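#data-curation
PF: Archiving a pair of folding outputs for the training set. Convention for this channel: one message per protein, sequence first, structure tokens after, nothing in between. First:
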Amino acid sequence: MSRIIGIDLGTTNSCVAVLDDKGIPKTLADADGERTIPSWVSWAPNGQISVGQRARRQAVTNAAATIYGAKRLIGRKVNADDVSWFARLAPFRIVAAPNGDAWVRVHGQPISPQEVAAHILRAIRKTAEEALGEPVTRAVVTVPAYFDDAQRQATRDAGQIAGLDVVRILNEPTAAALAYGAHRVREGRRIIAVFDLGGGTFDISLMSVENGIFEVLATGGDTALGGEDWDRRVLERIVDEMFDQYRVDLTTIPMAMSRLREACETAKKALSIDRETTISLPFLANDQHGAPINYERTVTREYVEQLTKDLLDRLESPCKRALADAGLTPGSTNDIEEVLLVGGMTRWPAVQDVVERIFQRKPSKGANPDEVVALGGAAYAGILAGEADDAQLLDVTPHDIGIKVGDSGFALVVPRNSMLPVRARRLFATTTVDQKFVSIELYQGEDKEVAKNRKLGQVVLDDLPKGPAGSVRVELIMTVDVEGILSVTARESKTGREASVTIRPSGGLSQREIVEIITRRRQESSHAGVLPGGGVRATTQEHMIAKPDDDDET
């Protein structure tokens, strides 16, 4: 069978790794010699698709059809606060799919984030095949530990569209700990923390390591917090300053926004090393009289830290809650021995200071934070393939899972940080005479008010036997597998006969839509990459949440 590769599908950059002949994970470079590729996809007017650095180079001249940050949209609803915030300054349009999911609109056609991610995965697969000289069909794909069920399912769908058999969805912090070799440092039990702040998501995982077994004690995070938020904060300030000075709204000029976004990201990277840098953008736009605006200003690290103080503050709460869930107190006898840094944003000095203050320990910097997750994915791929057996991973559920009770209540069924795999049961009784079905709504989240949690779907138990109210009982069985993906079955208790169960997802692609995308992509491949349509066409009117134009309904 073909080798299993490890893929870090990142918000900003993606990476692929594999075990070499000596059983050591190594990252693979593309044709340009780059070991990470930007997670960007661009559609030219003729339908030609570009991925990675080639797509990013089109961002200035083809901003409305160049998509980045799809990981922040995958498995998300269009009305989520952070999606609306992302859409406000994105040069491309974000629209609502018929089921309320956040999609993007390219050349008049709605495209799901899963399909955008599939283009990135397909490019990564090609890189692996060219480097290895053999076909690649299987992969371990990493996701943030705090991803919910919908986001994990959507990631798996992206792999299917890309022609990959995703043999395992693996949490990024766990992969990083494996790549760091935390189980090879010494014998005995060690407690470590993995602090993962990437381009678009934040994870914190606390785990014990003993005899090659990684046991996650608790996890937390924020799937709407990452390095791009630091870039955007600087960008927003410059947009406001330009409007105040010149009465020019840069958000209406896609080319200017693309140039400014790239300049802000470059400045942030420079300030992670230097105390100050210069943003210089000649001919950024024209003023009200048509004269060119040549933008230039010096930006200091202190200035950016002042703009982003609230972002730093958001890192603390998930860490403290994870510590409490794991029963750990920094400085106690049951101390955290090491804090591992993952994700490019951990290079920012203020982030490292926050980590040291929370955990009362200087973090380790012994690995490339951009590549370590992919390396861990490759290491775990080796374990699954039987090429290595020196580690075992025991992960936990990232969120509470429960059901809606009454009008607005949330009844917990599977608590967060339950060891995976986990199974839980709940009994229901009929409430009316000869009741034909029971309808149960499933939610994921930590709030007691069900509306503030994420709806996973609805389970309808049909064909119940006749009887008085309360005489028929139905057992609901929830199972969360080792990848954190939920499945539900139901059984009528008296006869033992399984009732008909229909799960109506609250979002995501249907299997029919996935097949349609795959079929269309095969047809397009025979036309040298020309994309005539671009995405699954919505069956109902999609609604704009940013930058409407004449043919859209807001």
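PF: Second:
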Amino acid sequence: MTPVSASIGATVLGYPRIGPQRELKRALEDHWAGRITQDELHRVAADLRARTWRRLLDLGLDSVPSNTFSLYDQTLDAAALVGAVPERFATLGLDETATYFAMARGATAVAPLEMTKWFDTNYHYLVPEIGPQTTFRLAGDKPIAEYREARDQGIDTRPVLLGPATLLLLSKPSDDAPAGFRPIDRLDELVEIYVDLLGALAEAGASWVQLDEPAYVGDRSADEIAALRRAYDRLGGLTNRPKIFVASYFGDLGPALPALASAPVEALGVDLVAGSGATSLVDVAGLSEKTLVAGVVDGRNIWRSDLDAALAQLEQVRAVADDVAVSTSCSLLHVPYDVDGETKLDRRLKSWLAFAEQKVAEVATLARGLREGRGSITAALESTRAALADRAAAPGVVDERVRTRLGRVTSAELQRGDYATRRESQQAVLGLPPLPTTTIGSFPQTSDIRAARAAFTNGRIDEDEYTARMRAEIERVIRLQERLGLDVLVHGEPERNDMVQYFAEHFDGFAVTTNGWVQSYGSRCVRPPILFGDVSRPAPVTVDWATYAQSLTDRPVKGMLTGPVTILAWSFVRDDQPLGDTARQVALAIRDETVDLEQAGIRIIQVDEPALRELLPLRSADHDAYLTWSVDAFRLATSGVADSTQIHTHLCYSEFGDVVAAIDGLGADVTSIEAARSRMEILPDVAASGFARGIGPGVYDIHSPRVPDTDEIEVLLKAALEAVPADRLWANPDCGLKTRSYEQVEPALTAMVAAVHRVRP
């Protein structure tokens, strides 16, 4: 039975696409390695789509989304669909799929598109490049083909498209664009491509289409909001089109809400989890005439919904509009598939959780309760109340020892000596040359490393054997770095499965999953740990590994830790206390580790905060409060060591100009940042801000398999030296090397060291 197309009813804004067993990841990597053909890859993709549509229908949705599947990234899909393929890729002479992957991953002598975070999530998207010369055209039929694919299976889906305004607001000007050009200036032209696309979808039989405009939950200018209204006046005014559902998520629409409410579209989606709730909808002209798609089930976290509270929100929304649909707050791309697959998770903790399948069931339950009354879902309401009460009372959720210690922290514990004094003291100990070379931390995780970890986890080898194998790998990595000529070494992190999960496995207050995989980008998947209770560190975590590595060499070896903000950002975090309080608890655990590393003789300690910008609230009015607690958490984690111990940090793909003052506020002695894909665009912001500590802009992109040559890295280093003096500049890759192979890493690091020797004063 197909859903009724006249009403949206119960739905979700999107769904995971990597496959319950990461089938897409494996197929992609097999294809890139030449083990399977394009046709075989596309067969895997088609099977995943079919299984998803059928499962969503079986779970009780009235409207099933399509075109939420992607081989790599939905923003890249949207750019390719409208012909926004930069010339350097179009001239490669590749077929459509190969060109698509070249844009994502690069090709020989051709750099990929820049990558950055999708709003305030840990998902990465490819940044389209748009210029005055970009020729928009309907260059493909993916949404139409997938709609027909589902219809042929008896399922009438709702195609999902990235909205035209958000597509342009997420884009960057192409290199040939003149100063002052903004991609959004080309919205009217792009909308005409969407006119053609909506017409094609209508002819294919689609009754609804979803256009996502999440860019408008952030700060937007009056002309950007006017452009949004103009776009939907044009699209809504078409006679040959499906009904239009404009979706927003990750916060409130703010001043964009009235613009969309008065536009000639049939439905509007609002995030009532991250937003301010149903009260924000009251007295907005035009809403009463639309279907309001209320996002009341959290699409980003894994806790069971409070069904009573969600139903109350829905009842408030029904006072605003007669037709109310029930949905997740955003796509379920950000959560794992099914909690029932977690056979090793504590049963009590498991009863508090809802992954994607459970969230779809919650949506269907709430829709029934709204439609038929609370009495129709009595059992579900009682079950949820019991789970919430059990969670609040469970051991480990509150640890008075942790809270007492945190309450005794003073402002003095967030301070170190002034930077000039620290720098002099550190140089006396380390004796580093100008423009020192290093890496970010991890080295390739070979099949032997993964096999040893799996054997240890499964009990096939004992701890002594596992330690011996990891030590052998550490020695190999140390010797390699010495041979390559690096100045500051790392131990390579062979013992770590993930930079957050590894610490979660050693801290109280966390649990880890077995199958809780979430897509980060392309084929890259992570398993975010679950932070359910007060956090503490029972025993040292990294000290033995770091001191063993240091014993092998006279060169300094960095101790490698993950910062408190990143541990929060890349975990599923408890929602029963302020995020800042949780961050400070994690910071105290990290502080204990930094102190122990220093006492063990480690003189450089890197505390990575790649997610600092990621968690920045989308509206500027909320920035100060976040930056205050996030900076304080980092300082609490790193200020327990002496001035002579050098503190490093690392930050990932971001719009650094938004947080450069906070980066300075962290007080790290050296900050490494990702800069290769953007070709050092960040450094003028850094220089203009007055940032005066050490900085290591990445000189090659580790997210692409291509290996840069010495000349390419030299160009980037010379660009960096125009903004940063050599005595404060470091050379390093963009990020850790875990996902790359030694065949890629060794020549790239060789080129990096050679380039440094060319430019080092």
